[in-house]
Amino acid sequence: MKIAKFRSIALTFVGASLLASPALADDPKFEFGKAEEVKAVKGVEWDASAEFGLVLTTGNSEVTTMSGGAKASRKTGKNKLTMSVDGTYAQSGIRRAKAGVTTVSSASDIETVDTVSAKNLTGKARYDRYLTEQNSLFLGIIAKTDVPAGIKVGGSAQAGYSRSLYKSEKYEAVSEIGYDYTFTRFDAADAKSTNVHSARVYAAFKGKMNEATNLDSSVEALPNLNSFTMPTGEVKIGEGTRVNFHVGITSKLTKSLSVNTSLDLKYANRPAPLSLPGVTFAAGFTPESAQMDSILKASLIYSFF
């Protein structure tokens, strides 16, 4: 028991440490591009990083959580291309009495059932063309899968205009407006895919709270511009609105070591249909997944450069 507990604590610490990568060392960072990133680039400049995390517990509590990702960017002239991929997998083992057993009389009456609570993968690519130091145009592509959320496979294409609203030594605010097309194939049985056209409004802010602590936040709203059909019913214009919110705080402990705490909230007014493996719903009844997903994360960040 004690050995298993110690192993759990040790691997949790290792997982948090492995999640740190050079790409996170300068947090906070936004998803948008900035003109000064390419202003001083004379030729072609590449940047790349990777991250990986693992949490493993055994014994009375059996949980496996893995996360990883990679990022790369190419800068030249007034152009910037960024690419990234990240994913999470989590599985837990629950001990219970075997089917049909009402009174447990021996260890053979107990079984461990594995349940997948997280299984998602997202890939992104974005191109920014800088017109001036405050204005730019962008194109973006996103591909993803998130089975527990009811999404078998999905993708988005985005285009729009980005504007730097305010910038000083300590603070910066940026806004974006544009268009988003999202394709989704649901994981529910016999579910048809959907095609959603949405307006996109995005705003982000970052500020220096003190010499060692930075704050970053952003909000993205995607109101749908067309009507479409989901397994859970008809969705009218505006009823399929999605909202994504992020806030993070990064504090430096030493010159190379920082700690980051972040919260991400993802809201869908008409979420994907709920998919439960091994469960058959009654004819005419298709429940929805939860409208709100949240991710609270704390990470140690080590800067190599």
Task: Name some characteristics of this structure.
Porin, 14 strands, disordered N terminus, mainly beta, 2 helices, 7% helix, 305 residues, two-stranded antiparallel sheet, globular, 12-stranded antiparallel beta sheet
Order of helices and strands: HHEEEEEEEEEEEEEE
Mean pLDDT: 79
DSSP helix fraction: under 10%
Number of helices: 2
Rounded Rg: 22 Å
Largest sheet: 12 strands, antiparallel
Q: What gross morphology would you assign?
A: globular
First and last CA, distance: 41 Å
Task: Give me the count of strands.
Answer: 14
| Structural classification | mainly beta
CATH topology: Porin
Q: Biggest sheet, strands in spatial order?
A: 1-2-3-4-5-6-7-8-9-12-13-14
CATH architecture: Beta Barrel
Uncertain residue segments = 1-30
Q: What portion of the residues fall into strands of 2 or more residues?
A: over 45%
Number of domains: 1
CATH class: Mainly Beta
